[in-house]
Amino acid sequence: MKIYNTLSKHIEDVTSLYKDNKVGFYACGPTVYDYAHLGHFRRYLMDDVLRRVLKQKGFEVTYVMNITDVGHLVTDADTGEDKVEKAAREKKMTASELAKMYEADFWLQFDRLGIAKPNIVCRATEHITEQIEQIKQLEKKGFVYEIPGDGLYFDTSKDPSYGELAGLSEAQLRGGARVEVVKGKRQAADFALWKFSPANEQRQMEWDSPWGKGFPGWHIECSAMSTKYLGPQFDIHSGGIDHIPVHHTNEIAQAENATGRRPFVRYWVHHNFLRVEGQKMSKSLGNFLRLDDVLDREISPMSLRLLFYSAHYRDELNFTWDSLAAAQKGYEKLSRKCHQLSQTSEWETWEAVPLSETAPLEDEVKKLYDQFLNFLTDDLKVPQALAIMWKTLKLTNQPSALPALKSMLVLLGITVLSQK
Questions:
Q1: Are residues 213 and 303 in the same domain?
Q2: Are residues 27 and 163 located together in one domain of the fold?
Q3: What separation in angstroms does the CA of 36 have from each of 30, 101, 105, 143, 306?
Q4: Segments forming the whole domain that contains residue 303
Q5: Helix axes 218-230, 249-259, angle to 10 degrees
Q6: Which of 40, 194, 211, 383 lies 20 to 30 Å (CA to CA) from residue 377?
């Protein structure tokens, strides 16, 4: 299994930290102040494929995802309101009610898309103690300073490796390139670990701490929760490419300096953006698309999986309704052919287990199946693997084509339409 590692800037062989092939995999989850859009789910679909392929290669994967329900402010400069509290006020709900509503919708879309839920789901509000403890460790080691009336900040000048993940230059770290300059910071790159509650104002979400009442910064939650569940070092951490310059860079600084273990993560996996009709997705452009928008057009979520598989995870993908309609036609054809091959309408009920590497296959089928696996295990070359799947579908005269095809669909997370 090979994957591109953002930290090393190379495709690397994936190995486990442990002799029993256990793999720790942490994914940055949603900030639950709004509905997740299609761009988010493109990323989680590809994480799902990665998990499936790792399992096929014999790894036992512990998959952990956070839910950001506090601490994510409206700017990367640690200023402004908390996104969840702001949205809750606008909708006349409590922060807790709003977060639970959007999280429930998030998992509903996981089910619709056939994405396996994480082994562990951890919410920031339920791990305040762990976040405070990690800040204490950083404070003991001299990485923390206070801006009176504002909060505690991480001193990036104390970390000679800061910015390595993103390849940040000295000029970028000095100010203005990634985040706005905030009064009181020693360096522009310094970031909040703990924010104080405003004087004479009671927030919905605030906690007592050794430094005063307040709430954690956005980045500390992922460092504290990932190390709680996966240890001070683990194998894989995924996220969007927008996480690289700030969030993940800051996660590394916190975790490595708190635990004294380096590297914090061995393989950083980052997914590229989804564009809509050639434009960036945004509410102001009216192209903020959700899975519900797809379902409203009576298009299967599996068709969306097929469309997302048409581009490599590290490349941008341009979504158009025409391309999704074409994917729907392809999905309907796939379902028809599968049922013709199987002579049953019970395809979905078959045991969903990928083929053993020793499974008996005719030479032509084995060649295609090996190519399929080779593409998936070589940095998730899903578009090429998908092309092999379509070739296998044509081998109607080969008895082993059916189990091979079924295994391919399992690894891609595709279930076919019922023909009842």
A1: no
A2: yes
A3: 7, 12, 8, 35, 19
A4: 299-312+321-412
A5: 50
A6: 40
